[in-house]
Amino acid sequence: MSRVSSTPVLRTTLRWSAIATAVLAVAGAGVGYAVGGVAGLWSALVAVVLAALFLAITAVSILVANRWYGEALYVPLFFGIVMGAWVLKFIVFIVGLLLLRGQPWLNPGVFFFALVASVVASLVIDVVVLTRMRIPHVSDVKLPTAEEVADAGNGDVLR
Q1: In sequence order, what are the residues at sequence separation of 6 or more whose Cβ sits closer than 8 angstroms to the Cβ of residue 114?
Q2: Dihedral (C-alpha) 144, 147, 149, 150: value to the nearest 10 degrees?
Q3: Which long-range contacts (CB under 8 A, 24 or more apart) does 82-85 make?
Q4: Torsion over CA of 103, 104, 109 and 115, rounded to 10 degrees?
Q5: HSE on the CB side for 131, CA within 13 Å?
Q6: Using one digit for the tens of pLDDT, what is the confidence trace for 27-74?
Q7: CA Rg, the chain, in Å?
Q8: Whether the predicted model's global pTM rises above the 0.85 cut
């Protein structure tokens, strides 16, 4: 089994996102407490954790699906796992909104700004990681060996 070229990109993104989540949690808790007291503190923490969870689900699902790279059922497994993760995110999002709606300890302004800050930080991390990773344009392909090329010249079909 060979490694898919997206694996190091996704792992790096997850690592940097975990660090950013910790920094945003501390900063958000401090700002949230200063702006909205204890409700602001909890609102910022919940928003940062929710953003980190939702943004990590896709990367983790792709990493899990990539374990079957090279197998006959890789493509259906990949799309099944990734689409299943997206459906899970949708369901958790709806349930989360229903549970958080109207909670007395939730400061909507702090929650919103902490959520937006987390999403923007994640997007910046994705851009930085993707621009710094060196992945060839033609990755994850197997080129024919010299023997296969020579056999193809004799009328054999490349496999």
Answers
A1: 24, 28, 32, 43, 44, 45, 47, 48, 51
A2: 180
A3: 82/58, 85/57, 85/58, 85/60, 85/61
A4: -40
A5: 6
A6: 999 999 999 999 999 999 999 999 999 889 988 998 999 888 888 898
A7: 22
A8: no
Query: What pLDDT digit, counting tens, does each position of 121-159 carry?
Result: 988 988 888 787 776 666 666 778 888 888 776 655 555
User: Can you give the three-state secondary structure of 88-109, one letter per residue?
Assistant: HHHHHHHHHHHHHCCCCCCCHH
What is the C-alpha to C-alpha distance for residues 28 and 13, in angstroms, rounded to an integer? 21
Around Cβ 19, how many Cβ atoms within 10 Å? Answer: 10
